[in-house]
Structure formats: C-alpha cells, structure tokens
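Try this one yourself first.
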C-alpha cells in the first residue's frame, strides 16, 4: 500500500459495484503441461527495420540467457545505484529547455515557458530511432527521439510546491499564473537524444522536440466520436477535445507510434454539492460516481478556480449551463483514454482511441503481430478492485504498415474499430475474456446501467465490465508481452482493500506488514499475474502468478510465496517491460510499504512460463485459497539492478535497438518534503539530480537517466 502523502491520488477506490469478486466455476483443472505449444508457435513478425547501413546500426542482439551482473543491495541513499561495471547519467530533467530561445532552468520556482520545457513526473517512455537522413529507424542506435509521459506534479494539498517560488497557493481561489504553469507541466515530451560514443545528451534545438500539454488539440476517434456524452462547449459535435492528462504507462505500436495511457485524470475535476440535483437522475450521476467524482468532490489542484476563462472553467465538471453545449459537464468524459502520437511528426494531432475503453489506463502492450491476424493489445486499469482488458482490432495486420509513412492512418485502421474484452479469472487456473459490446446480451439488456450503443461502452467501460462480472484485481498496472512465448504479464501493485473475505485464487494474499510502527494491511506488496493464450485472439487463457512481491524475511508459507531473498526482494511492482533486444523483463517499483528499508528500484528478470510452478495453499483463518504460483525465481533469474534516490518512483524504460543503452525515468524524488520547507534545501527529502552534478538549484527534479555498461556491452549480460 502506498503511504506517500499523495497516495490518495494514485490509489483510487471507486469500484463499489456488487459484481461477484470471483467467479466460482467448478471446472476440472486441466493439465498444466503443454500450454506453451500453441503460444510458442506464434512466429515473430518480420522485422520492421529500415535497412540503413551505418556504423551506428545495431547488430542483432542475442536473447540474454543468464543475468550477468552482480545484484545491487537495497539502498536508502539519495542517489541512483547501478551494478558494478555500469554507469548512470542524467539526461533530461524537469524544466530543461526544448528550444534554443528558452532560458536555462533556474530551478528556484521562478521559471516560466513550461510549454517549451521538460514537464514534471517523467513516467512511461518509448524510443523512436532516427537515422542520419532523418528517417525513422529501428536499427540506428546513436540518435533517437524519446517520447515521455509527464504524469503529474509533486503536490501538497492544492499546490505544486517545487514549481512555485514559495511552494504555491494552497487555498482557493488559486492564482491564474500558478495554474498556467501547472497546465503546461502535464502531458508528454518528445525530445531528441544522441550520443557521441562517450556521453549522451539531448538536443535543445531539435526540430523534433515537442511538448503536448493539457491544452494541446486532440481528436476523438473510435466508437465514442460524436457521442452525446462527449459534447462540450468546446466541441458541440463531440469530435475534438483538448489535452492529455496523468499519462502513466506507454506502449509502442507495431506501426511505430507512441500510445500513452491517461490514468488519474478524474481527480482534476471539480463537481459541486448541488450537481446531482441539477442532473435530475440522469445516468451520468451513476457514471460520475463510478469514475470517482461524487457531487461535492474537490479537485486536486483547484484549476477551476483560476477565473472565468475557458481554460479554467473546463475543470468544473458541473452541469451549470443550459445544456451540455453550454458548459463542461462532459469534459471529464474526454479523458481516460489511450492517446496516440506520432513522435516523428511534430505538428501531427493527438488522437484519443476511445475503442480501447475509458479507465485509469496504464501501459498498452501489443501481442506479437502476425500477418493476416488482428492486432491485439493488453491493458490494466489501475485502481483498487479494477480490471484487466484486451482490445482486438477488426483490421488484420499487414506487415507493410510497420514501415508506412502515414503512421497515424495505420493507427486509425487498427485502433478505431475492434472489440474490447475484460478478464474473468476462474479459480482453477483458467480464465476467459468477456466481450464488452452491444453484441453481449448481458450488456445490451443490462438493468445495472443503460447502454445504448458501443459509444456508451467505450465511455463507461468500467460499468460494462461490472455488468459482466469481471474479476476485481489488486490494482492492475503495466502489462508486457514476453517476446519468447507471447505470454502476457500484468503487475498488480498492491491493494489495501484485499482481505480474508474477498481473497481469491488470483488475488490470494491479505496480510499485515509493519513499516516501522505502522501496520499496513491487505495485499501490501503486490504480485505479477501472467496469462497464456494459444492465440492472442482466443477467448480463453490460462494463468498463474509469476511472482509474489515480498520482503525477504516475511513468512514463506503465507507472504513470501516466491522465496525472495535480499538480492531480489521488492514491494509494489508497477512498471513492467520486456526488452525487445534481450528479452529481459524489467520490473520497476512505486512503493510506500518497504521504503523504511529501501528506496524504489528496478529488477531484471528471466521468467519461465505459465505452469512452470504449481499449486499453493494460502490460509486465511478457516478459509484456504488455492492459487497457482510460477517456479521460484533464483538468484540468477531475478536480480535487483537499480535503486533510486529518496522519495522517487522508478518508472518507464526503453532502450537503443542493440540493448547497449537503456533509458529509465526517476519520478518525484523528494516528494515527501513539507511544502513549508520549499526554500530550505537542508530540509529537502532529496536533492537529486543536483547532488549528481546536474543543473542549477537544489530542488529535486524528475528526470530521465541513461545507463550504459562501462565496457559498452549489452545491458543485463
Ligand atoms: Fe501512474 Fe498506476 O501508476
Ligand atoms: Ca515491512
Ligand atoms: Ca504506474
């Protein structure tokens, strides 16, 4: 469980649906052997590489068979720790200018022009290679674009304290000038980076550099386009909207664009106490409550209080005008999507892909594309008791699209039409994907919520999933597809609502853990579930728990079920990415439970496959839950690779195509600093990255780092 001061913003709890938490289907347990034959037969798609002969082009990298580095220990130091033989360099931090005309970042709260500087809270990140002729390249290794999410801003009450000279204004109304900064530090970055063979740097004046903010024009695409529930004063035909918000995980499409998940957007909207009365029993009330905005809800930053200008008024989600065309009662419905961006085209318009559903999106991981078969994407909805989804495109994969020049048209082709499914886990190690569309009579005839069309399902996705009895999970975060066998891994970061009564086979642990004198309860440290399908388009899957996160000294019968040791114990797995170059599974943590013993971290894993372990019993008093646990990792197949500075979460990872440089984001170092201490560096929880020699001022900054091996070798070997 997340005990950080802002944990309530990142730990939503609005699934009060009465759907059965677990489907108890008495079904004989199938043999757990032989599952992999089908999945393993899915061939790797032909390489999307543009052949650019060059000294900088990557030679093929062999999959890593053994993790060759020495595991790093747990650390409470205010620094980035990497293994012996490795080096970490700060590359791109909050406030860094993205244009030759923007002054250097002073880092004292007085800086402006944030629409042309690095945003805050670096999160998910993808690599987009560029060759010497400015062509997209999947082999060039010395130059590329990083597309980066800027999820949020370090926050104490209403303000964003490190961003403002004296910490900002914590009472309403808030000054417009402070809000304008905050509107600009959220969103996305595209930034060009390159290496001279010795050091990496970002290019301040690259024409590819771009910031997307909460105000950037976006197009609504897919089934919800034109819906009555997306009509706003800004777009009376519900085809466009503004900005992207709380972008958490990312993905890279098979056609070479960025997809980014909007996560905790709901918290940015204000709804006054009279709004339910004004809405007069409209079904929007049920949806607003389900998505975390009860009448009377205060917004996270009070942006609606900045004045009458539209850029402030849009954050008031109340039905205050004569109709939806006169106010922003539907503005919140324009957030919560997967957004697609073409990093190679700085002027292209952001597209919100509503067909992938509206939720607290994390990453989007794509099944290995197969010619003539649909594109399949897996997604988690991060809040307590939310669900796991997959999207299956209507269009089938044409490998020529991997190299097409009009990448967003390929996005239209594969992401605007398709079918969304939600996962229902059975207690026998099997599961099913349940269709969320008007073709499903449970939804079409639902008495739980009125679904009139697939647009309603795209916008009110959580309610559709409730209606079909999806399985409530322990906060689904990132997903990743194992390139070796196509299996899907999903981190379940923790869940303070899990208890003995609702523990089930796939979320089997509920226990007590001490952090100093504080007791945390539930699934305190999280776990990682994995699913095997014979084909990604199948409606059935088999599952097991790849890994139970735990403190090494916890009880091995009830908590430390994966027998973790001091070299690989962890808490609250969040980011999860399989390296395309090496096959290493990188696991990153966003933790508040084990931070008395260690800062957040990143581990390298070489997992096996679904079914390589066995059944385990977890006791809760009189009740015994049977779960399925993967083979215990060994010291050679799961190792701690990195520990971050104080107060930081580790999130987002991508690499050069040769696997010799990895880029990692350090999010919100020092976030446990008190706002009143904002001008007293001795009181900062963290002074990173200034204490690593990067930039002016002592205020901590979220940043991208690049890690290389001192001998130039492949990372992880
Ligand atoms: Fe932004 Fe669920 O982490
Ligand atoms: Ca503990
Ligand atoms: Ca996350």
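Now uncover the answer:
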């Amino acid at each position: 469980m997340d005990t950080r001061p802002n944990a309530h913003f990142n730990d939503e709890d609005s699934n009060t649906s009465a759907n059965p938490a677990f489907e108890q289907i008495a079904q004989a347990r199938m043999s757990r052997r032989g599952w992999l034959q089908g999945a393993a037969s899915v061939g790797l798609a032909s390489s999307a590489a543009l052949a650019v002969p060059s000294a900088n082009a990557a030679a093929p990298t062999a999959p890593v068979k053994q993790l060759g580095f020495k595991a790093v220990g747990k650390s409470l130091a205010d620094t980035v720790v990497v293994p012996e033989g490795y080096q970490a360099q700060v590359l791109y931090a909050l406030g860094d200018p993205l244009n030759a005309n923007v002054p250097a970042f002073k880092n004292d709260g007085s800086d402006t022009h944030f629409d042309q500087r690095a945003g805050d809270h670096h999160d998910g990140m993808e690599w987009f290679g560029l060759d010497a002729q400015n062509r997209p390249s999947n082999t060039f290794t010395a130059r590329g674009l990083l597309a980066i999410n800027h999820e949020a801003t370090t926050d104490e009450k209403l303000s964003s304290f490190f961003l403002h000279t004296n910490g900002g204004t914590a009472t309403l109304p808030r000054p417009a000038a402070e809000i304008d900064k905050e509107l600009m530090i959220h969103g996305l970055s595209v930034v060009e980076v390159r290496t001279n063979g010795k050091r990496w740097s970002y290019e301040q004046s690259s024409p590819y550099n771009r910031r997307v903010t909460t105000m950037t024009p976006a197009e609504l695409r897919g089934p919800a386009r034109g819906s009555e529930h997306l009509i706003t004063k800004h777009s009376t035909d519900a085809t466009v909207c503004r900005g992207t918000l709380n972008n958490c995980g990312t993905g890279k499409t098979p056609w070479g664009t960025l997809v980014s998940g909007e996560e905790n957007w709901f918290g940015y909207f204000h709804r006054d106490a009279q709004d339910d009365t004004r809405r007069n029993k409209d079904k929007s009330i049920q949806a607003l409550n389900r998505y975390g905005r009860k009448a009377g809800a205060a917004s996270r930053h009070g942006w609606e209080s900045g004045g009458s200008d539209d850029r402030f008024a849009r954050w008031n989600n109340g039905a205050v005008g004569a109709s939806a065309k006169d106010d922003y009662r539907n503005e919140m419905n324009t957030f919560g999507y997967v957004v697609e961006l073409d990093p190679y085209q700085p002027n292209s318009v952001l597209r919100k892909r509503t067909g992938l559903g509206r939720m607290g999106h994390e990453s989007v991981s794509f099944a290995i594309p197969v010619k003539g078969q649909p594109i399949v994407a897996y997604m988690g909805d991060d809040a307590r008791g939310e669900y796991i989804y997959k999207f299956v495109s209507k269009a089938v994969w044409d490998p020529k699209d991997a190299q097409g020049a009009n990448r967003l048209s390929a996005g239209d082709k594969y992401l605007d039409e398709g079918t969304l499914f939600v996962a229902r886990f059975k207690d026998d190690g099997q599961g099913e994907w349940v269709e969320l569309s008007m073709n499903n009579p449970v939804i079409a005839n639902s008495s739980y919520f009125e679904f009139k069309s697939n647009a309603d399902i795209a916008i009110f996705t959580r309610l559709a999933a409730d209606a079909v009895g999806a399985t409530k999970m322990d906060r689904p975060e990132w997903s990743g597809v194992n390139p070796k066998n196509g299996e899907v891994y999903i981190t379940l970061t923790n869940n303070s609502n899990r208890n003995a009564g609702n523990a089930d086979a796939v979320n089997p642990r509920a226990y007590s853990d001490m952090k100093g004198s504080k007791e945390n309860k539930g699934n305190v440290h999280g776990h990682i579930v994995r699913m095997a399908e014979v084909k990604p388009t199948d409606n059935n899957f088999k599952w097991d728990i790849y890994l139970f996160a735990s403190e090494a000294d916890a009880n091995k019968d009830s908590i430390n079920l994966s027998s973790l040791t001091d070299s690989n114990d962890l808490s609250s797995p969040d980011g999860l990415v399989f390296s395309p170059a090496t096959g290493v599974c990188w696991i990153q943590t966003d933790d508040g439970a084990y931070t008395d013993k260690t800062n957040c971290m990143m581990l390298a894993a070489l997992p096996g496959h679904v079914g390589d372990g066995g059944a385990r019993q977890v006791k809760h008093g009189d009740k015994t839950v049977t779960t399925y646990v993967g083979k215990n990792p060994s010291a050679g197949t799961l190792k701690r690779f990195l520990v971050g500075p104080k107060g930081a979460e580790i999130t987002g990872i991508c690499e050069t195509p040769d696997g010799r440089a990895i880029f990692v984001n350090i999010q919100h170092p020092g976030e446990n600093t008190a706002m009143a201490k904002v001008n007293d560096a001795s009181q900062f929880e963290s002074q990173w990255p200034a204490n690593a020699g990067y930039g002016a001022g002592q205020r901590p900054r979220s940043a991208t780092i690049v890690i290389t091996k001192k001998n130039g070798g492949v990372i992880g070997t």
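Discussion: Residues 128 and 145 are 5 Å apart (CA to CA). The longest helix spans residues 176-185.
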